[in-house]
Each structure stands twice: as structure tokens, then as C-alpha cells.
Amino acid sequence: MGASINKVVLAYSGGLDTSVILKWLAETYDCEVIAFAADIGQGEELDPIEDKAKKTGASAVYIDDLKEEFVSDYVFPAFRANAIYEGQYLLGTSLARPLIAKRQIEIAHAESAEAVSHGATGKGNDQVRFELSYYAIDPHIKVIAPWREWDLNSRTALMAFAEKHGIAVTSTKEKPYSTDRNLLHISYEGGILEDPWNPAPEDMFLLTVSPRQAPDEPEVVDITFDQGDPVAVNDQPLSPAALLAELNRLGGRHGIGRVDIVENRFVGMKSRGIYETPGGNILRTAHMAMESITMDREVMHLRDSMIPRYSEMIYNGFWFAPERELLQSMMDQAQKNVSGAVRLELYKGGCRVLGRKSEHSLYSEDFATFEDDTVYRQEDAEGFIRLNALRLRIRNLMEKSGRG
């Protein structure tokens, strides 16, 4: 089965699943396994990874800091497009997978590895996101998806395999749900969350306080944009990763960014997911406010009509597809004048726009005023209305004459 495989690069998290996969790959394919962990904002979760991977049998371990690339090249492009899946999900996991896959292929090439592997199950979206990205970058790469091959189909079987092979398993009680964390969000799914009627336990949330426990005083924050990208918070210039981290801190403090949804997976089933995206929620609100005074109406409406399709592409794993790249060009072109500042109020789980200003503003008090003005003749509206009403009047007349 593994005669032609000498090296595999595994997307490795250090948890039970990928630890078992590391040993299983080495045993099943009689090959070297290189463990790769992408630092995209997991924090302390990465601390024990190198030591654990080596003890489990990895021939080499890569831990790459990709936080700035993640935010600047994946999060910001999606937010320039106001991407959102099914009206609620800000695509935190979906945006991370293509970056991880890209770096994984780069390591495979550097290490002359014939194959890559991941720990995604055969039921979820991540297997699709990883593998579409692999093949888009290297059409000849061999992909090994253990969850679609092995017979270790339960946690009990995984634990038994780990014990047999001396793989250290954390002794603390397993959380009754699974999590995935990066700089944009934390997701929770499975276990006790599978019943969509069950509310999420309050002690589950890691990034946000309960809105009920948030400060009783609102906090005002200013966000500066340059061509659709945020570049400063409260007039303090920040790198992309640092800016998102700061918005996470502010949003988390005020209980902003929690969402509980039942979403449609690409593979065909519905899945209940709970997400914390405090900084992303603030950023999207601010960005839309910035666009409201700087984007042409018809450009905005055309762009808005493409957001569901664009978001679906990312959710389904087509980040590196030509259609996503084509749409991205259109989205970015629409952002050339989206520069200025937005002022927001953060309070008890809410994010409210207080004001917006821009040197590229298309808003004119002279035109919008209800006071006496010299730039708009109100009587011109009569002809405009009558022309737009023509087809409605004709339809009514035809119906009444019996010819409709």
C-alpha cells in the first residue's frame, strides 16, 4: 500500500487524532513523517507540539508563524468582499485551511516528500478544503486521508491505538465538543452541541465574556481604513495580525461576536456550529459603514449580489480556484476609494456605528438636506416617478380592460 511513499508531511495539531495519525502513517506506509503546525493564532496550544511530535516518531517538525500572512492574504481579502456564509458565518476555519495547505505543499517540496496528510474526517468540510488546495498547487501530490482509510472509527479505538504505541494522551477529561482556533475565531461543534435545541454552556466560551457580564459603560473605538483594509485602531497604526488581535481584545471584553448557527456543509448534511469572532464582527461592521459613504450605488449593489457566491466558494474550499481569483479582482477594484475612519460604540454584545468620514466621501449634505437647496429641483422627481410608474399603470389598465 505504501511502497512508493518515503516521506509524508502531516498537518499536525498535537491532539489525539493527529498524534495517532502520525504513528499510523509511519507504521502503515513504512515512511518518514514530517509534522507541520501552522501558528495562525492558537496561542499556548502550540507550546508542547515539537516535543510531542518527536516523541511520537516525527522525523522533523515544522512550526511556522503564519499569523501575518493569514490576516493580510486571507482574512483581509475576504473582509474587503464582506464575505459571510449563509448570513452569519465569517469563515474563520474556511480561510485558514488553504494557507495551511499551501505551506504544507511548500514543505513537501523542500523535503522531497511524495505525500501530504491531514486529520479531517470523511464527513466534514475540511477534507475538501485541504485537498482542493493541495491539488490546485501540486496536481501530482499524493494525499493520504486516514479517516477515509483506517478502521479506527471511534475515540475508544484511537485511545487503544495510542496506548498500544505509547503515545501520550492528555489525562484531563475530554471536552464534550471539538474546537478549532485561529486569530479570526474559535469554532465549537460536535458532542453536546449536536442537538440544536441545547444551548451552549457559558463556560465554553474562551474569547468573549457574556454580554450580561460585559462592562456597564460603552467603549468608543475608531478604525482607519485604506482601500478597504483596516490599518489603525484609535489612530495607532498596527500590522494586520496585531490589529485583528486588538479588535479581538476589545470585542471580547464587550461580549461581541458570538453566533450559534446550523449551517449547510458542502458534503450535503447540516451541522450546528458555534463561533466566537469578536474582532471580525467589529471589522465587518466598520467596513460596511466605510463603504456606505465611499462606494458608488451601482458598484455596491453589483458587488453585494456576488457576496453569497464568493463566500460559498471559500466555504467549499475553492480559494485557489480561478473563479474565486476573478471575483477577488472585482471585489478589490470596488475598494479603491474605501478609505477613511469609522467610529463605533461597543456595548453589551453590540457594535453600533457612531460616525464615518472620508476624503473620498460621496455623501453631500448639499444634496441630502431637507432644508432649502439650489442643487436639486424637487419638481424633477415628478417625471422620474411617472416614468418608473409607466409599466405599473399599463399593467393595471390592461387587467381592467380584460386584456391582461
Beta-strand level of the residues, as a percent range?
15-25%
Structural Rg: 25 Å
Q: Supply the number of structural domains.
A: 3
Mean pLDDT across residues:
94
Order of strands across the main sheet: 3-2-1-4-5
Unreliable segments of 5+ consecutive residues: none
Q: What is the CATH top level name of the largest domain? A: Alpha Beta
Strand count, sense and barrel status of the largest sheet are: 5 strands, parallel
Proportion in helices: 40-55%
Succession of helices and strands: EHEHEHHEHEHEEEEEHEEHHHEEHH
Using DSSP, what is the number of strands?
Answer: 14
Description:
The protein has 404 residues and is α/β, with parallel strands linked by helices. It has 3 domains: 7-67 and 92-174, Rossmann fold, CATH 3.40.50; 179-295 and 334-357, Argininosuccinate synthetase, chain A, domain 2 (Alpha-Beta Complex); 365-400, no CATH class. It has helices at 16-29, 49-56, 67-80, 92-110, 126-137, 155-164, 240-253, 278-294, 297-316, 322-333, 365-368, 380-400; strands spanning 7-11, 32-39, 60-65, 115-117, 142-144, 178-181, 186-189, 219-226, 229-233, 236-237, 258-264, 270-276, 340-347, 350-357. Strands 3-2-1-4-5 form a 5-stranded parallel β-sheet, sandwiched between helices. A 5-stranded antiparallel β-sheet has the order 10-9-8-13-14, with helices on one face. A 4-stranded antiparallel β-sheet has the order 6-7-12-11, with no helix packed on it. A hairpin with a 2-residue loop joins β8 and β9 (229-233). α9 packs antiparallel against α10. The protein starts with 6 loop residues before the first strand and ends with a helix.
